[in-house]
Amino acid sequence: MPGKRSRPTPASFEPVRETLTNRPPPKTVAIETISWRGDHVRMIDQTRLPEERVEIEIRTVPEMVEAIRALRIRGAPAIGIAGAMGLVAALHPHRDDESEAFLEALEGYASELEVARPTAVNLAWAIGRMRRVAEEHADMAPAALWERLEDEALAIHAEDLAMSRRIGEAAQEVIASHSGILTHCNAGGLATSGLGTALACAYVAHEQGKRIRVFADETRPLLQGSRLTAWELMQAGIDVTVICDDTTAATMAKGEIDLVIVGADRVAANGDAANKIGTYGVAILAKEHGIPFYVAAPRTTFDFALRTGAEIPIEERDPVEVTAGFGRRTAPEGVKVYSPAFDVTPARYVTGFITDAGLVRPPYEETLQVLR
Amino acid sequence: MPGKRSRPTPASFEPVRETLTNRPPPKTVAIETISWRGDHVRMIDQTRLPEERVEIEIRTVPEMVEAIRALRIRGAPAIGIAGAMGLVAALHPHRDDESEAFLEALEGYASELEVARPTAVNLAWAIGRMRRVAEEHADMAPAALWERLEDEALAIHAEDLAMSRRIGEAAQEVIASHSGILTHCNAGGLATSGLGTALACAYVAHEQGKRIRVFADETRPLLQGSRLTAWELMQAGIDVTVICDDTTAATMAKGEIDLVIVGADRVAANGDAANKIGTYGVAILAKEHGIPFYVAAPRTTFDFALRTGAEIPIEERDPVEVTAGFGRRTAPEGVKVYSPAFDVTPARYVTGFITDAGLVRPPYEETLQVLR
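ok -> structure tokens follow
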């Protein structure tokens, strides 16, 4: 779950919008994880990956709630975009309603959407942002207000894409041509508007003609690395190799890896970074092999309310994902399982943070302050 | 594939037989991986684990060859025992044959059995040992010679069990009561006569009343940790917890692990140890957390013909084990995969070798000489 935002601060999105108008449109987007089609939402059904690429069309709130709950779309930033677009799609048939009926429908849909998944803060944040637009423009005729809401949903999408691109660009000073990049889990386009955080670094390097090779840790138990990261990089024509999580050390020893780039779910004020389980081990292996270890994350991922990583709560996953995760029993009935969803990488293992505000290096207690 | 012997030296088995007569019989054997039943072989069909425990009876060479090829029995020591016992079972109906016919049958069966799996040196070694017994006693009547061969097969089994037990006992000086032990792959009873190498240390600790907790790395791609290690430890009533390979570092950071014990496939003269892929990474994580890292292996695993681990050849596994290992596609069609079967842990990470000749500590260039 890359990019889960702990402290959504709408203010931090303002400069992004400004930047958007100042720069040429992105050259390539690897995949269209989610897109707006005038009156409905189109998105890749991620539960069907990597077996087949199926796109689904969403026009109603129940359809969108089901898609979010069933993980057809996942990744905190992507879910935020889905919520906003889903709201606009559901309101499309109401454009000719009376103002009161339109606002009533909006409120009903918003309440259903914002609770589709409780942990992804972005969803509640995006719906909240749509609500505020409606409140500010409550005097508009429904048809005009609907267009204003459509603009807002598109802005949320565009801002996310711009954030990803700035992360990708900030990474280029540490990515040499002919680099081997290791990543863990999927901090990619499928979790966001299409470029991702850790993978944005690879996409931009590829666009710039750098000859990169990406090694994707499989990432048990849910295999986001082999199922999603490998899939989206192949779509973009980037050289990708899948390795099991216990093959990372041997791959580093072989000299294949020049740098590691991972995402983050939450970063404490001192630079301790929570991310998908296994990230901490990769950081240790990188240190032992003298390989730089970078964390790519937007400013919204930094939670200055937490002094250190020890304060980050770690949830545990359902043991069945380990004992019978792929439809077949792979461990004895009733065996004990320890399956935390995340681990915390202490700041001392992090060579640098690649953010939408640029590259940040130690000492983090000081340098991270620019992200506040 | 724990305990694959690179240099089978029958001489090294002699002292074991002597020890066998000097000590009381083993108190407990965790599981009967393979046993002799008077005229046939009985063994656990490991392809059915952990879903169900099914025992199969083997009376003919084609049955045994199929069982070995299909991995119903695996692990180099166990396959050696299976080959010898399979030969005796197949010869049972020939006890009343003329001498020449008996020896002809023996030679035919032996040639078929010894090539059932080419890489496990123990199989060719065990069959060779049976052949030499037949040559030495070619003047015996077939019924008497058959009994002599039966004795030899039982001796191979008993020697393996004694070897395991001596490894288990040698480990006790480094296992405190209330220890958390991490292991990788299955260097257990299922790979040997019933006690294993790394797991023998846990079985003996358990017998001695130590309150141990074992953490079993799942061990992708073939999941020997979750499928086999967890299963056999549960059978023995030992507290076992399965973790994904990317959860090892977090489990260590949590303070759950007091020591690591793994098996080895081959150890070079300088102490560099080849074992199942992932072992090297576990060794680095152990070092970073200040956790001792032990390799449990019989003397026959040490290959003094190899100066360092760089000379150990590493085979690669079939990519399909990574891309669709659970009967379901988990990575995109056609994706590149790097899947070495083993890695090499440099000697500097090994706190000690737990062998059937006792505990060996650095400097290995000197201390390992006692195993020659």
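Residues 1-26 of chain B have pLDDT under 50 and may be disordered.
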